[in-house]
Amino acid sequence: MNELTLLTKAMIQERKDIILSILGGFIAGIAGVFLFSASGYLISQTVFAPPLYTLIVLTSLVKMLGLVRAASRYGERLYSHRATFSVLSRLRTSFFGRLIPLAPGILNKKRSGDLLARIVGDVESLQHYFLRVVYPPIVVVIVFLATVLFTSSFSFWIAGLFVLGMLVAALIVPGIVLIGQRKIQGLVRQERAALSTEVAEVLYGFRDLKVYGQLKKREKQLEHASAALAARQQRAAGHLLLGQTMHAFVTFFISWGVLASGAYLIRDGQLAGVFLAMLVMTSLTVFEEAAAMATLPAYKQDSEYAAKRLAETVPTSDVQPSHPSGVLSAEHGVSIELSGVSFQYEDEWRPALKDVSLRISPGSKTAIVGPSGSGKSTMIELLLKLRAPSEGDIRLNGRSAKEVDETSIWQTANVVLQQNHFFRGTIRENLLLDGGEYTDAELYAMLAKVQLTNMSLDDAVYEKGENLSDGEKQRLALARAMLHKGRLWLLDEPTSSLDYVTEQRVMKHLYEQATGDTLLLICHRLIGLEGMDQIVVMDDGMVIEKGSYADLMEQKGYFFKMKQIERQMVGEAGEQKRMP
User: Fold this and answer.
1) 227/221 Cα distance (integer angstroms)
2) pLDDT, position 544
């Protein structure tokens, strides 16, 4: 669905504030016209020395119109901005609601800086849609019609001049601005997104750029992107300034026209001279209300381009039409069955999984081994419903995963992925990510199980865990998973950065806690797999062997060869350590 359609629906929901803002804008505009008209008439009347009560009435009218204009303008600003912020809030909530189900796949398609620019910048740009695109024409039309009716009671010729000037100001000037704006349509936003992307890349890779001596080169790229953005913004500002200048020219041209035609009509006896100053002041004021029309095309195209980028970020076809309501029971181990499951990443030439069929009994422990790129991690993502299989079906506890709410799966699963995120805060806050309530003693006991006795719960954790080693990150992620207390364990290389002794100690506590649970372990090391109920060997996205450790060793197939290679490498490493 187009974002402007969602924006329009959100505006309909805020129709009360929108109507009040339009009413306030009309009252403020017409009060301003009458205020300056009355001021011009008052100035003209003072020349003829009118009775005192006439001056008192006119002076009081001017003061009253000033108060009405100020109060209505305040109300117009209050209700229009409140409606805008409410509409923006609805749009942001809707956009994020449709974006979240697409993660993490969308993170692989968009660079993080560009995605951030879309989420923040493009959504914020749509705030101008009502204030700068929808609202001004409505207020200008009704204020202008009222002014023309008022002016026509004095002179049809001057009213016709008003109509001509308004057509130029409301149609021709914006049209000229639109022609120029089309040439740079979206270029400013593209340059801003490019700059955001480059900044994010430099911040994330600052350390590596520094080490490899490429920081100066990336700094020059940043300067180039910044200069390009400044140049585009200058050109865009020039078009806006051109529109404002042309509008000011039309305003003064019409005012001079009113003055000249009024003088002619006075000489011809068709207009009383006391009304000339009033009509000139009216022309200056009513065209001031139409000033927003000069910049309307720029904001309109900016809003349309922002809406287009948001629609590209979250395509309608990617949004699930319905939300499954099935619940995965957490009272016992989970049974898993994959039937002919295949999966291929977008833009990849080969599938990550090919016709995988596998059954994992509830309460069993299964290890998945194989070379890098064989599809092991992809299987975890499919089980968590982070991605959907291209073909085949996955069943959890006998029910198709399509029918199970993903939130229920996440609540039941204790997950440790290859890359685990840590938030800026403390060790305690990162351990209590699932919102559970634990005493400090329980948290310290868990840290001891994962061999992190040197840490305090109040120790700081930097963004993305930058102050933690890879081994500390893995152990902290394991502690977080063990605190979750689900009945399904999905572990993807959870101890790849740990030494053998630490790994055995940590996994001993994990296996004790996982007794009776379903455990799925992805690993490259083949040491310690003797106690697994089932070992699945994968290569090139396919299951090539499966069985117990003893069965696979007896078959002397792929797993047996992998084990022999590992033993040989471990033996060679031991000999090198013993060498003087």
Assistant:
1) 10
2) 93
